[in-house]
Design brief:
- 63% of the residues lie in helices and 24% in strands.
- By secondary structure, the chain is of the alpha+beta class.
- An eight-stranded antiparallel β-barrel has the order 1-2-3-4-5-6-7-8.
- Strand 7 and strand 8 form a beta hairpin.
- The protein starts with a helix and ends with a helix.
């Protein structure tokens, strides 16, 4: 009898506090039984979702008891949609109800006899579980974001590595051609000088001299076409290659500060590509400046030759 007095109820009376425990929460049912076996009370629910977010709700309870049989109606709360009913038995350990508690689905819930202290203990445990789940979710989300950032970093480094390798290949082609381009510019000047000398030797032959003057101008046009190609290369170098190498320089610092295996692997390939591309970059920069200086020298000669050819005519 001492045990029954603690919970404030007896088998013949449903009056008391009951707890139903779930993996994601609990429900507290408080009932009062009147002399005519009518039951009134309240049920409150506390639960958490898969993200650890806690929600709570409550409902009024009415019903009746017939011997050990219990019939209850739950009405009006956010957890239970509309009105739900449950029927079951009152036993020494509590009330077992079967009803449409779970979104209209029939299920069986056991409400064990309890007191306020047990309820508070259980509520604290539920809140701690919710906090643990929320913390784990936050940790998982932070890890997901870190993984995404790392994957993006690896992808950018790999893309930059491919660009460096492609630049190295293209630079080799241009560097191989440029000595020939320099000789071609100088050869055009020599050809123009030879034609000017020939023009001077044809004094009195206006037609032939005119044809040579046209040929001299055509040589200058060819030189300008070569210069336009050079300017196009210089613009591409300034607008694309120089920014690429600046980015590559910053990537070196990033690689030096990130030792994670997948990043380190990408950085190793990048470092090799950068080490190969850097001298090519310097050679291209020097080569472009050199070709421009050669052009300016030859261009001035062309202007002098064309001026002399015009004066001769």
């Amino acid at each position: 009898m001492a045990l029954l007095s603690i919970y404030g109820c007896s088998l013949s009376s449903a009056t008391g506090t009951y707890l139903a425990k779930f993996t994601n929460g609990l429900a507290r049912l408080e009932l009062v039984q009147s002399g005519d076996h009518m039951l009134t009370g309240e049920v409150d629910w506390v639960s958490f979702d898969t993200n650890g977010r806690l929600t709570s709700s409550s409902a009024s309870v009415t019903g009746m008891m017939d011997g050990g049989a219990v019939n209850l109606t739950f009405k009006g709360n956010a957890f239970l949609s509309g009105t739900s009913t449950g029927a079951g038995e009152l036993g020494w350990n509590g009330i077992t109800l079967t009803g449409n508690f779970n979104g209209g689905k029939v299920s069986t819930v056991t409400f064990a006899r309890a007191n306020e202290l047990e309820y508070q203990w259980t509520l604290v445990a539920v809140e701690k579980n919710a906090q643990a789940i929320a913390f784990a979710r936050e940790q998982a989300e932070r890890q997901r974001q870190e993984d995404a950032k790392r994957n993006q970093r690896v992808a950018r480094i790999e893309k930059l590595t491919a660009i460096l390798k492609n630049f190295d290949t293209e630079a080799s082609v241009h560097l191989h051609r440029w000595p020939g381009a320099e000789k071609t510019m100088q050869a055009i000047t020599s050809d123009m000088e030879a034609k000017l000398q020939q023009e001077h030797s044809l004094e009195g032959n206006g037609v032939a001299r005119g044809q040579l003057a046209v040929a001299i101008n055509q040589d200058d046009v060819s030189a300008e076409q070569m210069h336009n190609q050079l300017l196009s290369l210089k613009n591409d170098f300034t607008n694309n290659v120089e920014p690429m190498m600046a980015i590559a320089g910053r990537a070196k610092s990033i690689c030096a500060s990130d030792s994670r295996p997948d990043v380190a692997s990408a950085c190793q390939a990048f470092s090799q590509a950068y080490a190969t591309a850097l001298p090519q970059y310097q050679a291209v920069s020097t080569g472009l400046d050199h070709l421009e200086s050669i052009y300016q020298i030859e261009h001035q000669k062309h202007q002098d030759i064309m001026q002399a050819a015009t004066a001769a005519n």
